[in-house]
Design goal:
Blueprint (H helix, E strand, L loop, with lengths): L1 E4 L10 H16 L6 E5 L4 E3 L4 H7 L22 E5 L2 E3 L1 H8 L2 E5 L3 E3 L11 H9 L2 H10 L3 E2 H7 L4 E3 L4 H13 L3 H16 L3 H6 L3 H8 L1 H11 L10
Parallel strand pairs: 1-2, 2-4, 3-5, 4-6, 5-7, 6-9
Antiparallel strand pairs: 7-8
């Protein structure tokens, strides 16, 4: 599934309607067994998403998000399918939080990142929790306390994007990455993602090993596990059924 934030007139900033429309899109993704991978990007070449539409926020006096968080994604804790951020431009504030909530991210070399909320009297809220879990504490503090923007190479060095590409190469690199994911069993992808995140929630490594992972059990009992072994033995490409 390809999701595009289409508000280029405000650099793809999100108002309440956009949040709920994105939540509906990711609900559909989560509930459709024929959809195995999602990408999210922004319209245009200037911005991926620059966060909250501050004009809309000023008019309403409050934020209005679905239960699944900013962009209907950042507090969606039970989504075991991979989501890829295609960062076509600036990812600022909530836009950076979206990137942090995705499992993989490719960014164009011209993209800028940052959490500038303190510069308008706010804190970055949920973005701080994800940032501190993906970046070292000192780097987290510098990003969060200064509110300064930084470039794509810095984001790559910090470790929350996977690759920096020329703008004209973004779609080709995205197709390659998505195709790499689709060569894998959909059930194996879900099991892998669930085990990584649920395992990280465990207090100790021992508890992570001992925890129950329903997607892993589903994978082992499914047709795809048998198909994968048969295809390997028969030296052919597997035909995944996602069941």
């Amino acid at each position: 599934m390809r999701v595009t934030i289409d508000r280029p007139e405000v650099l793809n900033a999100l108002n309440p309607l956009a949040h709920y429309e994105l939540a509906e899109a990711f609900d559909a993704f989560a509930n459709d067994d024929l959809l195995h991978v999602a990408t999210i990007s922004g319209t245009g070449d200037r911005a991926f998403c620059v966060g909250t539409d501050l004009k809309a926020r000023a008019e309403s006096g409050q934020d209005d998000h679905p239960e699944t968080g900013f962009a209907g994604l950042t507090e969606r804790y039970n989504l075991n399918k991979p989501v890829v951020a295609l960062v076509n431009g600036d990812a600022i504030g909530g836009g950076l939080e979206i990137v942090l909530a995705c499992d993989l991210a490719i960014a164009v070399s011209t993209a800028r990142f940052g959490l500038p909320e303190p510069k308008v009297g706010l804190a970055a809220s949920g973005g701080l929790h994800r940032l501190a879990r993906q970046v070292s504490l000192k780097q987290t503090m510098e990003i969060a306390l200064t509110g300064n923007l930084f470039d794509a190479e810095s984001a790559l060095r910090y470790g929350f994007i996977n690759k920096v590409v020329d703008p004209q190469s973004l779609q080709a690199e995205a197709e390659k990455l998505v195709n790499d994911l689709l060569t894998c069993s959909p059930l194996a992808l879900r099991a892998t993602k669930q085990m990584i995140f649920k395992g990280l929630d465990a207090d100790t490594l021992k508890k992570a090993y001992q925890a129950e992972y329903p997607e892993h059990d589903r994978m082992l009992a499914g047709e795809d596990a048998k198909e994968g072994i048969s295809a390997f033995v028969e030296k052919r490409k597997p035909i995944w059924r996602g069941r």
